[in-house]
Write a structure and sequence with these properties.
This protein is α+β, with helices and mostly antiparallel strands. The protein contains 9 helices and 4 strands. The chain has a 4-stranded mixed β-sheet with strand order 2-1-3-4, with helices on one face.
Length: 249
């Protein structure tokens, strides 16, 4: 029997979450090294020269960047398909994934979650309230205005569940940890999409894992996941002191 793939990165990260969701939905065995993005050691840097999560390790293969990893998983494990069959829809789905990875990564993760969560938790630094206020009042609403125009009145973005739905929901799931919720009266399509995706058994399973560790000290998270029966890598790449420098992946 082949070894399960290894995923390096905290499931609280939206980039890691979408990879784990792909694995869960495709029924691929995996184990995880749930490191926070800021605590990778020198071995992590050698594998991820941009110091980003997630990493996928499968035998001698090491892949960086969540979009690269997800496309690899789709090609290697084609069923069930998580990219639209229609070429135009597939391109649009990849665009929504890219929009989420870049722009939502900026406004939801760096201007909101990092400021209110990671910055305080890891670095004991205060949030920049002006950045947070602008994100809540201007940046996130503008992003939601755009996304609302890209979705059908109901259901998934392209009929069947796809990488676009998984990615969009993953970012708003992380934002929920700092008490951000989509106003369903203003953006009903986006709110319904996130609710629908997060209700999937695979996403509920991941949410249970995330909820268990989100407020635990980093040093306690592996043990907590082991107690839940989560398959872990034999060793960790996350035993260095926190340092700034992580960006999207």
């Amino acid at each position: 029997m082949s070894e399960p793939v290894s995923i390096i990165g905290s499931p609280i990260s939206p980039y890691v979450r979408k990879v784990l969701a792909m694995l869960e939905l495709k029924g691929v065995a995996y184990r995880i090294d749930p490191i926070a993005p800021f605590v990778g050691n020198d071995a992590f840097t050698r594998l991820s020269p941009l110091r980003r999560i997630p990493l996928l390790i499968e035998g001698e293969l090491v892949l960086n960047d969540s979009s690269v990893i997800c496309q690899y998983l789709e090609d290697r494990y084609p069923a069930p398909a998580l990219y639209p069959a229609d070429l135009a829809d597939r391109a649009r789905a990849r665009w929504l994934e890219e929009y989420a990875d870049t722009h939502l990564g900026d406004v939801l993760i760096w201007r909101l979650f990092f400021q209110l969560g990671a910055k305080r938790f890891l670095f004991r630094e205060e949030a920049d309230e002006a950045v947070v206020r602008k994100a809540r009042e201007e940046d996130i609403p503008a992003a939601l205005d755009y996304l609302e125009t890209q979705l059908p009145p109901e259901g998934f973005a392209f009929g069947e569940l796809s990488i676009a739905d998984i990615t969009l929901a993953s970012f708003f799931r992380t934002a929920a940890f700092v008490k951000y919720a989509i106003d369903a009266s203003r953006w009903p399509r986006m709110a319904a999409l996130v609710t629908q995706v997060m209700a999937l058994p695979a996403m509920r399973k991941l949410a249970t894992i995330e909820d268990r560790i989100v407020r635990l000290p980093l040093a306690e998270q592996r043990a907590a996941l082991a107690d839940m029966g989560v398959a872990l890598t034999p060793t960790t790449l996350g035993d260095a002191a926190p340092r700034h420098g992580f960006r999207r992946s």
